[in-house]
Specification:
- This protein is α+β, with helices and mostly antiparallel strands.
- The protein is about 30% helix and about 25% strand.
- The strands form two sheets. Strands 1, 4, 5, 6, 7, 8, 9, 10, 11 and 12 form a ten-stranded antiparallel β-sheet that branches. It has a two-stranded antiparallel ribbon with strand order 2-3.
- A hairpin with a 2-residue loop joins β2 and β3.
- The chain starts with 14 loop residues before the first helix and ends in an 8-residue tail after the last helix.
- The N terminus is likely disordered.
């Protein structure tokens, strides 16, 4: 039987000829869109690969992977090295007790240090030589028919003269009777000492002096043939006694 073909209306468009062209246009558009997408993806991949500063994530991922690899390598190496036997050291390490047994240089220096002796000043004797080192040119006694009432001590002119003992100056100046410039010292025990023929006097009347203090300088004033010290000891004023035994009893030898 022959099927009845549908009746075609004049107003109905003929689709038998337009369908193939419509399908061909859609396929072409899909191909063009696919190609454009592939090109876009390729350009994006290139941008991601070539741009290091805009996309640091891939570098971070690669660095983290490298760090894990290095860590695994070190762990494996440490396991292998720990299994290798270590030869014992030939030089033993000194024990703390042996090190502490030897004294340090500072302690040794301290132990050897000796305390410095204290300086002491020797006390001045109560009586001293009025002109140490002098030559004796005349002793106490008779000379040229008269009494030489003292001891003459000679050194170069200007030699210092010292007080034989502590006391008070009772006279300083020209004593007359050929003594020239003289100093008298009262020692407060009934005795006086007399120092004559001085070139220059260094003390004044009423001045307190100590044993050994400079009271003047040797000279040749008055009746003198040369510079010397005429030294006398008085037991009371103008009562001269021999100075040699008197001074010797007090630890001073004048050489007469």
């Amino acid at each position: 039987m022959q099927e009845d073909s549908p009746v075609q209306n004049e107003n109905t468009p003929d689709t038998s000829q337009t369908v193939p062209p419509r399908r061909t246009g859609r396929r072409n558009r899909l191909i063009v869109l696919g190609a454009a997408a592939l090109v876009a993806l390729g350009l994006g991949g290139v941008a991601v690969a070539t741009s290091g500063t805009d996309h640091p994530a891939p570098a971070a991922v690669s660095l983290d992977a490298q760090a894990r690899a290095d860590s695994a390598s070190r762990a494996d190496r440490s396991v292998r090295e720990s299994s290798t036997p270590v030869a014992p050291s030939l030089s033993p390490t000194p024990s703390p007790s042996a090190v502490s047994a030897s004294p340090t240089p500072a302690k040794t220096a301290t132990a050897k240090a000796k305390p410095k002796p204290k300086k002491t000043t020797k006390p001045t004797p109560a009586w001293v030589d009025p002109m140490p080192g002098a030559a004796i040119t005349s002793c106490y006694g008779q000379r040229w028919g008269t009494l030489h009432a003292g001891i003459d001590l000679a050194l170069p002119s200007g030699t210092p003269i010292h007080a034989a003992a502590a006391g008070t100056v009772t006279q300083a100046g020209d004593a007359a009777d050929g003594y020239g410039n003289s100093v008298f010292i009262d020692h407060g025990n009934g005795y006086l000492t007399h120092y004559a023929h001085q070139s220059r006097i260094a003390v004044t009347v009423g001045q307190k002096v100590k044993a050994g203090q400079v009271i003047g300088y040797e000279g040749a004033t008055g009746d003198a043939t040369g510079p010397h010290l005429h030294f006398e000891v008085h037991q009371g004023m103008w009562n001269q006694i021999d100075p040699a035994p008197f001074m010797r009893a007090r630890g001073v030898d004048l050489g007469c």
